[in-house]
Specification:
The protein is α/β, with parallel strands linked by helices. It has 9 helices and 7 strands, in the order βαββααβααβββαααα.
């Protein structure tokens, strides 16, 4: 089955769906050099309006820009910085519903997703915590966090080798960051925005079964 990966960045989400059994095609408005599958440089909302193109896909994942909801917006505000990003979640959801295809929307805690499941790196034995929300038009289940067993998570944000005021640190090397995320092909700038593939592998297996009618 084929899955369309919108706002794909460097392919953290897409790789998880690949592990779940999908053939993945990524779309992003930026020219992404390290996407591991077929990639198209296009506007995601324009793609969602292209019925002929969508006819070859069985499901869609979308990760609309999250800067307006991310916890780092408070740091930007304190520094007097503004983001040019807008909230594309409502437009993306409306367009996804019109396709009639199974879909998943991913975003950060605080984003206005509808009845989302929460995924956490501690559920998969990863070094990062990185909570993310996933909304779908199909019933999906997440996994419980296991923060106690995980201990202090490794930070994969900001800059490498930063001490965190309440304890812990950001990754001290690219290798440590890659291991913490379960990703081996991205650079630091990709990793700070990525979704651990373990999240979408877990959800993608359920999505695949729903499409087959075996769940």
């Amino acid at each position: 089955m084929r899955l369309l990966d919108l706002y794909c960045k460097a392919g953290g989400a897409g790789y998880g769906y690949h592990l779940a059994g999908f053939e993945v095609v990524g779309v992003d408005i930026a020219n992404i050099k390290r996407y591991p599958f077929e990639f198209l440089k296009r506007n995601a909302l324009e793609v969602l309006a292209d019925k002929e193109f969508l006819a070859s896909f069985d499901a869609i994942h979308a990760s609309p820009p999250c800067q307006t909801h991310s916890a780092t917006k408070h740091l930007r505000n304190a520094q007097g910085k503004q983001t040019s990003k807008v909230d594309l979640i409502p437009q993306t959801r409306k367009a996804l519903r019109k396709t009639g295809l199974p879909y998943i929307i991913e975003n950060v805690p605080g984003a206005p997703l509808i009845d989302p499941v929460v995924m956490c790196g501690s559920s998969f034995g990863l070094g990062v915590r990185r909570h993310r929300l996933f909304e779908s038009n199909l019933p999906l289940t997440g996994l419980p966090c296991d923060h106690k067993k995980q201990g202090k998570p490794i930070g994969v944000y900001g800059s490498m080798r930063d001490e965190i005021p309440n304890g812990g640190h950001t990754a001290k090397s690219l290798e440590e960051a890659r291991e913490a995320m379960g990703i081996d092909w991205m650079l630091w700038g990709d990793l700070v925005e990525a979704i651990p593939p373990a999240y979408t592998e877990h959800l993608g297996i359920q999505l695949y079964k729903h499409i087959l009618g075996t769940i």
